Amino acid sequence: MKELVAQWDKRLNWGWIGDIAKWVIEEAIAIQQIPAPTFAEERRAEYVRAQFEAMGLEAVQSDALFNVIGKLKGKQSGRPGIMISAHTDTVFAEHADLTIRQEGDLIYGPGLGDNSIGVSGMLGILRSLRQLELQPACDIWFVANTREEGLGDLGGMKAVFQQLQPDIACVLNLEGMAFGHVYHAGIAVRRLHITAKGEGGHSWLNFGRTSAIHGIMELGAAITALRPPEAPRTTYNIGIIEGGQSINTIATEAGLWLDLRSEDSVTLGQFEEKVRETVARMNKASLPLAIEVVGDRPAGQIPADHVLIQGAYAALEQVGVKGTLENGSTDANIPLAAGCPAITVGVTHGGNAHRLDEYIESKPVADGMRHLLLLTLACCDYVAAS
Question: Which pTM value belongs to this model?
């Protein structure tokens, strides 16, 4: 793969890459300006679909989850090719302030890095191939998928990969601010919604009755006393606590939302069992507790010496960047768990993800796009020859 990357880098004249980088940034802002909370990505999907069609992709389609798919026909069409994916949803509400501001090299805007520039980077690959009149060696499936964030539970990628799996040899997944990193392992994630129901009543007149909030607080304290193993790395987080009617009412209902993660699926299952044992121990007739699984992201990985990783490293080296190997929870979890080679790579650097002051750096975008295009073309050559 390293040789294929080097060959493409010598073959292409990179004088145009600055124009592509400028276009990718402008496109990222245009995408960012379209609200796309998880489960409400339809308007952004329509925009991406129009771009796919304008740039001549075949078999462009959308589904009920607002995923958008299109195929760029390769020289060896009809055989398994590659998928390039980027999620369209954001963590921000429909009416969040999406104002953009620029300070030097930094461009601020909620959702701009995660993942508007990931989507525009995907479009930038397609635009580059069209402008250079390059037909890839194998088919490329471009996928703008939904439901990556939060309780979306990777639902968009689950649906897309189930549909396209027979046509896919490997996956390049784009996260906007991951430039320089190569995510090769998807960590396992389980998310639980634990609820409690109490007797309720007046805070003065009925003092001593079971309170759902008190019960959930006690349960939360018990959960935080649990100690997950350090290796394989396993974590937990109570992200939301809810319940109650008023300050002077003994709560009849309350709940907490628990996020569990591990590098190993078996270890995660063992730690989840400890949580469930804690819930069972605290369950009683006056305070019934219930657990609902609201998220299940499977784990998977490819080895550090995999050809796909070596190709990503080689493409980064061509722009003077030393790649670092990472693990995390991304859309790549789905193909990895199914045994399909997949990595997650990025377009640029940035920070403050999931905050209103999220930002991207504009200067690295040219190098980011060069590395993505080299990786794409080399992967297509490798898959076609396999």
Answer: 0.94
